[in-house]
Specification:
Keywords: Membrane, Transmembrane, Transmembrane helix
Transmembrane segments: 93-113, 125-150
Strand order of the largest sheet: 1-2
Radius of gyration: 21 Å
Distance between the termini: 25 Å
Strand content: 5-15%
């Protein structure tokens, strides 16, 4: 027996209110940035000296690569942070970086697949490079809840 009751389309405001608790996750993850404080002075020292050092030697860090000061500064920090993968100077840091990259690859795949789904009308998802780039710069724990909030708010298929 089929129902003849009309389906009421939910409003975008209702969906936004329903998705609001997701944003609290971003607030909790902001505290995770405090975990970077113990390593920050070490990375800053390497950037000041323009040299990544470890027990087995040292490597010069390029101050300019892109020729765009903002990009050069941002990616200099990321490069130094992930240098452990290249030089294996600290086994714990090496495995931490490797696990991070494998986890991030799975999340990137989700954003990539969502970007190519024909039913997806959310404009930010159409460019699957934007969210992972912001996640690399700001942290996936902060960016993902904001992304999913807007996804639930604007997604036409929900």
């Amino acid at each position: 027996m089929s129902s003849t009751t009309p389906v009421v389309a939910e409003s975008r405001l209702w969906r936004a209110l329903f998705a609001l608790p997701i944003l609290t996750l971003a607030g909790f993850m902001l505290r995770a940035f405090a975990m970077g404080e113990p390593i920050a002075p070490v990375l800053e020292k390497m950037l000041e000296n323009s040299e990544f050092t470890w027990d087995g030697g040292s490597v010069k860090i390029l101050k300019e690569f892109y020729g765009i000061p903002l990009l050069d500064e941002i990616f200099a920090h990321i490069t130094v942070a992930f240098a452990q993968l290249q030089f294996f100077s600290d086994p714990k840091a090496y495995w931490h970086s490797l696990v991070f990259l494998t986890d991030f690859a799975g999340m990137y795949m989700v954003f990539l697949i969502e970007g190519y789904r024909p039913a997806n009308k959310f404009p930010l998802v159409r460019f699957p490079l934007i969210i992972p780039l912001l996640s690399q710069l700001m942290g996936i724990g902060v960016v993902a809840p904001i992304y999913f909030f807007f996804f639930l708010r604007f997604y036409a298929g929900v």
